[in-house]
């Protein structure tokens, strides 16, 4: 009698264990919390995403595009390797609002922007002499929601400043790209998406430093062509610059 009870108990335990495993397998982690995802798949992005304009890159990004309302780290080997042409399709999508260029290494050129499909009047060039003023300006742009995108060039930025900008970005739907040196990819960052960009013949090599999904060790090559009409322009006109006003907390 005792042996029969033990056998029935073992069968019952195994049945419920298998049932529990099958039930757990059917549960989507995203249904439990939007920040959860399976390690074998890309996470669902709970914020709006803008297509990069490059299908092969969209297929490798959570939400199939650049996330809005968060910080995206772009680690560039050097300025001018094609990072703006990489972003151009997404920037044209949000160009109904201003596109802010904060501390770019070179003045944005009106003809170059036009060649990429961006109206020069949509560009907002911001300059400041102090790092604190740059950070203040970036935070105000993100919190105000007045710009469709913010491109911020900064060689060094403290972790606490990164966290402040991340929180500010979450208050709106602005595309926010931090342009930093390639060496900064070794440093920690709260950005959910981090890409390293290197020039290659005919395009860019994209390395996935961090993304919400499975690790990808092999870089992705993106062919990016230069607009021939841009090369034939006889003149180059810079977008007028706007100095950053003194931060309110410094007044």
Q: How would you portray this structure in words?
A:
The protein is an alpha/beta fold and 251 residues long. Helices cover 31% and strands 23% of the residues. Mean pLDDT is 82; it is low at 4-9, 18-24 and 228-235.
Write out the CATH superfamily name.
P-loop containing nucleotide triphosphate hydrolases
CA gyration radius, whole angstroms: 23 Å
Strand order of the largest sheet: 10-9-8-3-7-6-4-5-11
Please report the total strand number as a whole number. Answer: 11
CATH topology: Rossmann fold
End-to-end Cα distance, whole Å, is 87 Å
Largest sheet properties: 9 strands, mixed
Compressed to H and E, one letter per element, the order equals HHEHEEHEHEHEHEEEEHE
Class computed from helices, strands and strand pairing: alpha/beta
Broad CATH class? Alpha Beta
**What is the beta-strand fraction?**
15-25%
């Amino acid at each position: 009698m005792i042996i029969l009870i033990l056998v029935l108990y073992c069968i019952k335990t195994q049945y419920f264990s298998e049932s529990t495993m099958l039930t757990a397998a059917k549960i989507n982690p995203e249904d439990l919390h939007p920040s959860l995802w399976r390690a074998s798949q890309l996470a669902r992005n709970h914020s709006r995403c803008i297509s990069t304009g490059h299908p092969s890159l969209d297929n490798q990004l959570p939400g199939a595009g650049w996330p809005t309302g968060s910080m995206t780290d772009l680690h560039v080997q050097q300025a001018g390797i094609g990072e703006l042409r990489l972003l151009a399709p997404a920037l044209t999508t949000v160009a109904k609002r201003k596109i802010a260029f904060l501390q770019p290494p070179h003045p944005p050129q009106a003809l170059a922007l036009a060649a990429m499909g961006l109206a020069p009047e949509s560009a907002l060039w911001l300059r400041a002499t102090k790092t604190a003023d740059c950070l203040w300006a970036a935070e105000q742009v993100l919190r105000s929601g007045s710009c469709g995108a913010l491109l911020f060039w900064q060689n060094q930025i403290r972790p606490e400043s990164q966290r402040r900008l991340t929180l500010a970005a979450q208050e709106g739907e602005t595309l926010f790209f931090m342009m930093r040196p390639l060496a900064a990819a070794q440093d920690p960052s709260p950005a959910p998406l981090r890409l390293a960009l290197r020039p290659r013949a005919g395009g860019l090599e994209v390395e996935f430093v961090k993304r919400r999904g499975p690790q990808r060790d092999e870089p992705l090559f993106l062919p990016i062509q230069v607009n021939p009409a841009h090369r034939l322009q006889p003149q180059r006109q810079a977008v007028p610059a706007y100095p950053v006003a003194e931060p309110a907390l410094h007044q």
